[in-house]
Amino acid sequence: LRKIVTLTTDFGMRDGFVAAMKGVILGINDSARLVDVSHEIEPGNILEAVYILEETCDSFPGGTIHVCVVDPGVGSGRRPLLVASGGQYFVGPDNGVFTHVLEAEENRTEIYHLTNGRYFGTGLSRTFHGRDIFAPVAAWLSLMEPCQAMGQLIHDPVILSRPRPVTTGEVIEGEIAHTDRFGNLITNITSVLISEVFGADSGGNITIAVGGLSIRGLSGCYQDASVGTEGAIINSFGRLEIFVSGGNAAAWLRIDRGSRVVVSLYA
Amino acid sequence: LRKIVTLTTDFGMRDGFVAAMKGVILGINDSARLVDVSHEIEPGNILEAVYILEETCDSFPGGTIHVCVVDPGVGSGRRPLLVASGGQYFVGPDNGVFTHVLEAEENRTEIYHLTNGRYFGTGLSRTFHGRDIFAPVAAWLSLMEPCQAMGQLIHDPVILSRPRPVTTGEVIEGEIAHTDRFGNLITNITSVLISEVFGADSGGNITIAVGGLSIRGLSGCYQDASVGTEGAIINSFGRLEIFVSGGNAAAWLRIDRGSRVVVSLYA
Amino acid sequence: LRKIVTLTTDFGMRDGFVAAMKGVILGINDSARLVDVSHEIEPGNILEAVYILEETCDSFPGGTIHVCVVDPGVGSGRRPLLVASGGQYFVGPDNGVFTHVLEAEENRTEIYHLTNGRYFGTGLSRTFHGRDIFAPVAAWLSLMEPCQAMGQLIHDPVILSRPRPVTTGEVIEGEIAHTDRFGNLITNITSVLISEVFGADSGGNITIAVGGLSIRGLSGCYQDASVGTEGAIINSFGRLEIFVSGGNAAAWLRIDRGSRVVVSLYA
Prior knowledge:
The structure is a homotrimer.
Chain A: E1 4-9, H1 17-28, E2 33-38, H2 46-57, E3 65-69, E4 80-85, E5 88-93, H3 99-102, E6 110-114, H4 129-142, E7 151-153, E8 166-168, E9 171-179, E10 185-190, H5 191-198, E11 206-210, E12 213-216, E13 230-234, E14 239-244, H6 249-253, E15 260-265
Parallel strand pairs in A: 1-2, 1-3, 3-5
Antiparallel strand pairs in A: 4-5, 4-6, 6-7, 8-9, 9-10, 9-15, 10-14, 11-12, 11-15, 13-14
């Protein structure tokens, strides 16, 4: 069953864009279960959408349809896509928003260029394919229409390159990939990588250097650090995260997305 | 069937006002499908609600119930209304929030003054008729209760006047009606009017003057203009829109709601 | 029946935290009706969550499950709780977020320490029990799993103390408890208390002193005060509220949460 449809956009919630998409979906399948992932993606920031969708989609059951419309190229030649991967579906523009799905290079991933106008809305605007293509396609998909009917298989989708951590001996160099609402600084360094380089249970033996600070060891929870003090932790998505206990690390430490993070053994 | 209920308010999402309305609706009809249109209407800005609802309601199927609570006169003598028009329903205060529906003067539009307290909540506060009148009325309506049972037909609803474009020979003078999240400047000039005045396919022959700028011709998509450059386009609601490719036109051009826009033939 | 699940958090809607919780819930019970109360609680501000949930939960029908995750102590020893009270259910951390329910000391309130991992998600992170504990517990609860199966009854939950108004003769001293989106200043003084101290229908005889201002009498609706003028009213939750007609009282009067409010007889 495919009744859950999630929405990720840079539309904000002040205008009626998101509601228009939902109206179209419910007009085709009034049993669809609609879930907002985020509509506060920075306008046109495709990599932010990749980050947020990557950390969210695993929490949804098989059959979920994720619609993502961060689409600065709307109306141009960029293709509309449907990606079937890992039992879930992804609908949106071919501009890299599904990079996290596509770079996994799973055998069972199928990528369709949406070409069958029968599944589009009536009238195709130049500025709002979320309403005119992606919402109706998602709705028809939720009614169990087959992917193959909707377009042609392709093998050359746009995949964006994302900064990856570099390991040199017993040093990992990564960066801040995202700042969340609490000001927590989330790196692109995973706990799996830390275990590979430093061994399992190495949390007490490592030092994390970021923005002139040096943080020794990993905390077991946010309150392990005293209030107002910075710490590092493995977060709920298995990533190394820098925080200030009871505070806002991004604001207090003046560190932002892209800052360099170095993990090494405590000397 | 009337299971979809949309909500448009100036309540924001930080307080629990919107949730209180949803709790009331689900307490009466737990099968209602609730959709947020916008809760970020500027406090008390009725014309902004008109604009947003007008651009959204056509995306919803017949039978949809739109609740709109931008209601600075709550608790005063202003009447609570139910409007049935074009197969959809509109519930809210009689202060002009449904101007876009009422000025269409459709034969089949029926306007009811909600007077039957049987469809209201228990207890009527002086400050929150969204919860006490409009939410319960919408919920009962979604259960197929007849409009006639809810109040009396009236013929003198409040209709607000909105600035309309003026055509003089081959010159259209309009204004910026709305700025969206991307900073796009949406005018009150429609593509239909442009075709009437300049002929179909006249996009290449017109000049749009706004805020000291002169934009020649219409773009086919946002990326037709080079990054950082302004352009004009017919948007997804059939209106003339000024944009900056990859940027925020409102911020960059320092143009806001109410600014004058003149369309004329390219000399 | 327990199909409605509400969510109150300090997660914001820019990240995917809220959506991850919803994905988990729908993965267990895809018939759950999800309602957002607020995700804009100030990070870590437990009393703000108490305030917002208190003013909202009564609008929901019996059987509703309220999940509240304002949880700065996540991953520490603080207990996860399930509270059954007044026919509704409350799921969240034992840090006082359910103070309004617990301080009512109702006979029929049952408090469970959630200990049965069978109702948790697979994998327990150190930073996101909203996804790993509270969402799955709420989902299983919505499937009518019995509370007793989920943990042990306890009798020592954390209850926060909140400032209460003090009455001395015919003078009530209270404070501003909350500022809403409109800038309305909501006090901790109820209409019930005003009636007890000054008699029923005493609205015209009292003076409200706040921030150097003195407001005589209660307004019947916001528009009873002339535009730009301050007034006092009993709001929709039965509390004394200070407003500026057509304006933002918090901004214009420069009064904030915690400011002293004194109600006395008009001399």
